[in-house]
Amino acid sequence: MGSVEYIKTFIIGGAICVLGQIILDRTKLTPAHILVSFLTAGVILGGLGLYEPIAKFGGAGAKIPISGFGYSLSQGAIKGAQEKGIIGAFTGGLQATAGGIAAAILFGYTMAIIFNPKTKD
């Protein structure tokens, strides 16, 4: 992977993060609302085929943020629907993202064991 790919990844990933920060600073939306909005945008843009060029250009910078997870869900659902019909539309997204979900659960659980989680006061 050459330095140009790293720069493209940084630009796309940074732009997504900057957009989220601007929305957080200039609106009354909570981080949870922004998270769900980015996920939904990734699903919609992925379903319409508009996220594909962004993902190809930005690589991990577009696929790692939550919008990329939405994109992966939509692509899995589309592929599942093509292969198995309506049932595949529901199961395809989960199959496409199962590795990421399992990793998040495993690492979250591991960190909770290693460190002492505290509630916010």
TrEMBL record:
InterPro entries per record: Spore_V_AE, SpoVA
Keyword Membrane: yes
Keywords carried by this UniProt record: Membrane, Transmembrane, Transmembrane helix
TM regions (residue ranges): 6-24, 31-51, 94-115
Keyword hit for Transmembrane: yes
Superkingdom field: Bacteria
Protein name: Stage V sporulation protein AE
Natural source organism: Wansuia hejianensis
Gene behind this protein: spoVAE
